[in-house]
Amino acid sequence: MVERKTTPPNGNPMPRIAILGSCITRDLWPIRGGGAEHLLYISRTSLPSLLADPVKGFVPAEAPPGDLHGHEHGALVADLQKTALARLMAFAPTHLIFDFIDERFDLLAVGEALATRSGEYARSGYGAQAALARARVIPRLSAACERLWRAGLEDFATLVRTSPLGRARLILHRSRWATHQRLASGRRRALTGVEILGGDPVRIQDYNALLERQDAAFLAAMPPVEIVEAPRWQVADPAHRWGLSPFHYVPEYYDGIRAQLMELGLADAFKASGPAAPGALAA
Q1: Which among 62, 84, 142, 271 is placed 20 to 30 Å from 13, CA to CA?
Q2: What is the CA radius of gyration of the chain?
């Protein structure tokens, strides 16, 4: 199928935006329409997993297993089969937005391969497959995982510098986990009992320190990067459509980030226009 390129009323080509990150960036757009048709969204992965070998012998189910939705299953299969990077290259983004909120999950060492121990992985039941039965967990906060992540970052930075990805405008959506939620009364209350996976309690400050290190390493390794951030509004919203979480923020947060992206020339990206880009909703 030949994709029809679209041009907004101002005469400029429609930006092709790839997100290598999480819902904190994807939620800047509606689920469908409003510019979402021009997105490529790659989530539930990690830089070392993105660049690793596929998991040998893994066979995805024909339909999403368990309670997974189609886009969740698609992201999980892409991480295990390592198809996301090829899709990113083929998408030829004009803008590539990164955020590291999904870099909270442990990694899995599966022979010579790496994968992401995401919530979708846990819910899928794929860990029972022979290909994954002997997977070894690499805790996210371990020195081993940090070394793998930094090596993956260096490899990705080299790829950007030596491939057409280098023509994309690079944007870091810099964020941190919220430490407080805003109640309906407007009062703020500390977040407690935070978990990554069920029964896996964590300390917010540990993951915010990790994000600080990741952001600094990323900015040092990559070509010039624009930064968008809204630290004032990094407050959790109990009424968020995905539920209460340290990275499901109040509406003002998304408004602030969207306004900054528009200032970077992406105003047209938030308007409905044209046919859906291939695989726009998930990778």
Answers
A1: 84
A2: 19
